[in-house]
Amino acid sequence: MHTHLTVITGASRGMGLAMAQQLLLPQSMLLCISRQTNTQLDALALQQGAKLTQWSLDLAHSVNAASQLRSWLESVPVDHIQSATLINNACVIPDIVPLHAADPTHLAHALRVGLEAPMLLSAAFLQATRQWPVPKKILNISSGLGRRAMASQSAYCAVKAGLDHFTRCMALDEALQRHGAKVCALAPGVIDTDMQVQLRQADATQFPDVQSFTNLHAQGQLTPPAEAARRVLAFLKRPDFGDNPVADVRN
Length: 251
Prior knowledge:
251 residues, alpha/beta, Rossmann fold, 8 helices
């Protein structure tokens, strides 16, 4: 029996949880890496006959997480794998304040989880699967804020811009490999998640764009996590996935 293997970070809530739920199908093998495990996923995996592994890890400790991922992948029986995919979804947003007022610890944590961890996990994934003669993909969940600046969002904007650009570099690397992975940094649109709540509740004196996020919610313009997950996973399955290493699900 052949299996589609997927590794996803930040799968305990929001769009990450919705993607994990939709990926738990018969003949699937799913590894979820999050700060907390999710009992809903365990129950769904049992119901669907899918293989699920959950790790409770702080991705700020990215060297350890990457090492653990590489070892796990190297233990997988390759003969039963039909495809392998890494989805770097986890991200945190620090205090919504101008850079001069930001807490250094919070800034460092956001950069490690949102940018350092995806780079190290991608490297570990590529190293461990280098000789796998199956289709491989890396999907980095980006944001429109990686492509335009916003006040009091220095860390988040920098993380997503960095995610976009390292994906471009990775695409060039993988194009030269015999069994190279297809890679893409994808902006998923504006999603109704806890992050949006955090943005709407920010101090307007510190965050001049707070009203625009309040308006998005009031006008019903936020995409539910399940629908956003469906769109992202549909994009992942497109035959032209990776042709453009930086993309937007809305285009």
